[in-house]
Design a protein that fits this description.
The chain has 507 residues and is an alpha/beta fold. The chain folds into two domains: 226 residues, no CATH class; 246 residues, Nitrilase/N-carbamoyl-D-aminoacid amidohydrolase. Helix content is 40%, strand content 13%. The protein has 15 helices and twelve strands. The strands form two sheets. Strands 1, 2, 3, 4, 5, 6 and 12 form a seven-stranded mixed β-sheet that branches. The longest helix has 21 residues.
Length: 507
């Protein structure tokens, strides 16, 4: 609390980095408390908005550098031509994302100095929590958004504590999470209150969760996890063995009893076009009277139209009966803006760039409850995982996390899928190339899973959906309501006289 200048910024960087270790798969929650309390103390002792902004930026840079380090793994997948660019790109991304906590810190400091009546310790804490939540929402939306590791994911180890997302979404749960983690900065009374609130939220969440339905009456489906190494995935000499492996896993005992076989994102090592010979092979993975649901690179007979990252529904005749094209592509990873226009100027631009899909969909097929497909990265975006049609009965996430090895990335990706299930009140089936494939119920519980770098299948009935949740019905309107309530509470609290000095006094 007495640090200044670069020492304060350095402490903020370390505190942010430590807080990131509370995210999956480590779940070191005490480090989240330490990191957030340090954030509050450093903010509280900043001399003004500029100083608070700098400290918030340093905290955010450390936090996102550790939380997103797994991106480096993709640069080292053979042939690893651009491996040296990995670390500086990840640090650059962390520095950019650090501006969101910086904006929260700077804006909250300006408000605290502008209205001295908010000088009480509890007022300052609530003010900072409100600013944090708004900044986190902006991080999920600005420049296509990057809502990776929102603060509420620290509760991923305890499913009952995730149930608040059904009311206010992950950002609203993040506001409450910030208040709980930061409570020690306001003294021992606030710490005890935070423990009581967290315990009450856990009991309420547990009470809201229906017992696990072990039998289920939904159709039986088979999820296939082939565990294909990314370095081998598109090699021409490996295509036949890869397809043979997918078919062998798909047709294991019980194949004739399932309604659908599910393959991961871009599972076939080909660009699939109408009439493609690969469809005849893929038809062998279709169970009797059922479907193959597979991620695939989809093309058209006119090669100039481009290629889409898609979910294909294939029937027993090898016909594509339904298609979903990924809408939210990864900037620069899957999509290069204006790549068609720039391709004639620079030959390398445009290679590996997918086309953007038109809209999200809800697919309704005979023998299967209606579902909304979500491809890979799309699952991290709250209130953006279902089609505009009638509410689906379940969600399907196909992904390929092989790029990221055994890093924390795939586990954090799974946490996002679980929270989307809680928000929407819908079960989610997840097929991942190298893991983690899972069956997730409508409360975010993992009912079955295949861990990282395992090959195998999951045969499971599609879990039941729950009644539409408040967040599933109204999306971020519930978050707005929570923020308005927090602001009203802040105004009411500011009218009381607090037994301490205002401004930059120690909490």
């Amino acid at each position: 609390m007495t640090l200044k200048g670069w020492r304060a910024a350095g402490a903020a960087f370390v505190a942010g980095a430590l807080a990131a270790l509370a995210m999956p798969p480590l779940h070191w929650l005490p480090l989240a408390v330490l990191g957030v309390v340090a954030f509050v103390w450093l903010w509280d002792t900043a001399s003004g908005p500029k100083s608070a902004l700098l400290r918030g930026w340093a905290w955010g840079t450390g936090h996102f550098a550790v939380g997103s380090y797994w991106i480096v793994e993709a640069f080292f997948v053979p042939p690893a031509d651009y491996a040296p660019l990995g670390p500086p790109i990840v640090m650059g991304l962390a520095a950019l994302l650090g501006f969101f906590p910086a904006m929260a810190a700077g804006a909250a400091k300006w408000a605290a100095l502008r209205w001295p009546s908010m000088g009480g310790r509890y007022c300052r804490l609530l003010l900072l929590a409100i600013a944090w939540t708004i900044a986190e929402w902006l991080r999920g939306h600005v420049f296509t958004g990057y809502p990776w590791n929102p603060l509420a994911h620290v509760w991923a180890f305890a499913t009952p504590l995730l149930q608040g997302a059904a009311l206010f979404g992950v950002y609203g749960l993040g506001l409450l999470t910030f208040m709980i983690l930061a409570a020690p900065a306001a003294g021992w009374r606030a710490s005890i209150l935070a423990l009581v609130v967290a315990g009450g939220a856990g009991f309420a969440g547990q009470a809201a969760m229906a017992p696990v339905d072990t039998a289920g009456d939904g159709p039986l489906v088979r999820i296939v996890q082939p565990n294909t190494p990314q370095a081998e995935k598109w090699r021409p000499d490996k295509r036949t063995p890869h397809m043979a492996r997918l078919l062998e896993l798909s047709r294991r005992d019980g194949f004739d009893k399932v309604a659908a076989v599910i393959w991961p994102e871009t599972a076939p090592p080909f660009v699939i076009e109408p009439g493609s010979p690969a469809l005849e092979v893929m038809a062998k993975a279709v169970p009797p009277g059922g479907y193959l649901l597979t991620g695939a690179a989809r093309g058209t007979r006119n090669r100039e139209d481009g290629v889409w990252n898609s979910l294909l529904v294939v029937d027993g005749e090898g016909e594509i009966v339904a298609t979903y094209d990924k809408v939210h592509l990864v900037p620069l990873g899957e999509y290069i803006p204006f790549h068609k226009q720039l391709a004639p100027v620079s030959g390398f631009i445009g290679r590996g760039s997918f086309e953007v899909g038109e809209s999200r969909l809800t697919l309704d097929l005979p023998r299967l409850p209606s579902f909304s497909p979500i491809i890979c990265y799309e699952v991290i975006f709250p209130a953006a995982v279902t089609g505009p049609e009638e509410r689906p009965r379940w969600l399907l996430n196909v992904t390929n996390d092989a790029w990221f090895g055994l890093s924390s990335g795939p586990y954090q990706h799974l946490a996002s899928a679980r929270v989307r299930a809680v928000e929407e009140g819908l079960p989610m089936l997840r097929a991942a190339n190298t893991g983690v494939s899972a069956v997730i119920d409508a409360y975010g519980r993992v009912l079955a899973a295949l861990d990282m770098q395992q090959d195998g299948i999951i045969d499971h009935r599609i879990p039941a959906a729950r009644a539409p949740t408040p967040y599933g019905r109204w999306g971020d309107v519930t978050l707005l309501g929570l923020l308005m309530l927090a602001v009203a509470l802040l105004v009411a609290m500011s009218r009381f006289r607090w037994p301490e000095k205002t401004g930059n006094s120690k909490p």
